[in-house]
Amino acid sequence: MKRVLILGGGFGGIATARRLKQKLDPADEVILVDRREHFMVGFRKTWALVGQSTLEAGQRPLDSLTRLGIRVLRDPVTRIDPSGHAASLGDQRLSADALVIALGAELAPETVPGFQQYALNVYDPHDIPRASQALTEFQGGKLLIGIFGAPYKCPPAPYEMALLVNDTLKSRGVKVSVEIFSPQPMSLPILGQASCDLIESRLADQGITFLPNHKATAIENGEVVFANERRPFDLLLGIPPHRPPAVVRESGLVGDSGWVSVSPRTLETQFSGVYAIGDVVQVAMANGKPLPKAGIFAEAMGETVAERIVSTFKGQEPEAVFKGEGGCYLEVGAGQAMMVKGQFLAEPEPEVMLTEASTKYLEEKKSFETQRLQTWFE
Ligand SMILES: Cc1cc2nc3c(=O)[nH]c(=O)nc-3n(C[C@H](O)[C@H](O)[C@H](O)COP(=O)(O)OP(=O)(O)OC[C@H]3O[C@@H](n4cnc5c(N)ncnc54)[C@H](O)[C@@H]3O)c2cc1C
After folding, report:
1. CA of 244 to the centre of ligand 1 (A)
2. 72 φ, ψ (degrees, to nearest 5)
3. How many C-beta atoms surround the C-beta of residue 175 within 10 A?
4. Could you give the CA distance from residue 291 to residue 210 in angstroms, rounded to a whole number?
5. What secondary structure letter does DSSP report for 355?
6. How many A from CA of 100 to the centre of ligand 1?
């Protein structure tokens, strides 16, 4: 009997566990560890923020994955031992034939002075009810949306948030001026200037000011502080800096990028039989820039790793490779969405494009969630 230990039950971990259970011998054991109770797709936070839906409507209990034959342990991972293919969950040590690290990215609001005091953390589901309430009570003025570090999850999401928040407030007759800042030189550097111009002019058409090259150093009462200026706000929605979870930072697996280093096509770390997938890794594209952090990639990485583990267990040469195909949705209001999609690992350059806005992409975005909830949990 073989055992695979998967740390993290988000997009990547669940996709790995499911594919392994489909392909491995039924006697083989697949263990999934996560301290969270529920799975939920990332973009549901924005819908809940603007009052279009609730967080709860998109949450599914991780425990229900046991019906697929997956052993689910709802515990914090406290130590990772890559050379021993093992992890500790408090006092319990579990070792396995293969280890998959899918622990995602941790939000680090405390690294920006003033963030926890003055900003609403719109990437943290626990802060969404407070942020949604603040928007409901907002009587008008300056609303600032801040990207406080890069890389961050789903690069189009803050722009989607700006458009939807702006729409929501204006439809209530609130007089608001929305600004969004980023430390990056353009809205979505992966797209290049021409497509960024399309996004930025769409923001401008809605009266939203985009501030590129704005790296915030602190937040003080009513103002975000940058190297050479300060921007005032009445309400601040913040996307905090991201980093690997502490247990990963302490595992010795983090490379120069600040994230776990893996072989981009096989997702194997420097330890044979130890893989890392999803937001916790940094994969370089052919132009040297990092592959964006997105659930669609975490999922595809998980399926690749599962296939490779199955082949290895059968004594075959693994052939599955991660292709870097897919994309993220950018909802633009008025019942439409765009998509940033393509072949992110194409050579010699990533081939990524911005689609037109259409109702079709909004429907696709909705079914992106429903399909996963149905396939994984029902
Ligand atoms: C607003 C928003 C919109 C988004 N929209 C899209 C989109 O349209 N398309 C798309 O593809 N992606 C989107 N994403 C990104 C997507 O949510 C992430 O990229 C994806 O969740 C990454 O999957 P993962 O498996 O790597 O990590 P996660 O899904 O974050 O899972 C990691 C898991 O590890 C667990 N964990 C961490 N540390 C520990 C520990 N010490 N012990 C136990 N458990 C631990 C966590 O509880 C978590 O469940 C969006 C994200 C946001 C915030």
Report:
1. 12
2. -105, 125
3. 9
4. 23
5. P
6. 15
pLDDT of residue 140: 97
Question: Residues near 183 by Cβ (< 8 Å), separated by ≥ 6?
Answer: 147, 148, 149, 150, 213, 214, 215, 216
**Amino acid 276: pLDDT:** 98
Omega before 264 cis (within 30°)?
A: no
Angstrom CA distances, 243 to 42, 45, 267, 344, stand at 17, 20, 19, 22
pTM score, whole prediction: 0.97
What's the CA gap between 196 and 188, in Å, rounded? 6
Q: How far is the CA of 209 from the centre of ligand 1 (A)?
A: 29
The DSSP call for residue 291 is: P
Which residue CA neighbors atom 5 of ligand 1 most closely? 43
Across the chain, mean pLDDT equals 97
- Select from 64, 58, 69, 80 the least CA-distant residue to 8: 80
Distance between Cα 103 and ligand 1 center (Å): 8
Q: How far is CA 152 from CA 238, 244, 270, 287, 292, in A?
A: 12, 11, 25, 19, 8
Residues constituting the chain = 378
**Residue of 6, 14, 35, 355 with the most ligand 1 atoms within 8 Å of its CB, for mutation:** 35
Alpha-carbon span 78 to 89, nearest angstrom: 5
| Concatenated DSSP letters of 140-160 | SEEEEEEE-SSS-BSTTHHHH
Query: Could you tell me the pLDDT band of residue 160, with boundaries at 50, 70 and 90?
Result: very high
Q: Whose CA is nearest to atom 31 of ligand 1?
A: 10
Name residue 155's amino acid. Answer: P
The answer to whether 223 touches 211, Cβ cutoff 8 Å, is no
Atom of ligand 1 at shortest distance to CA of 297?
11
Terminal CA-CA length for the chain = 28
Q: How far is the CA of 10 from the centre of ligand 1 (A)?
A: 5
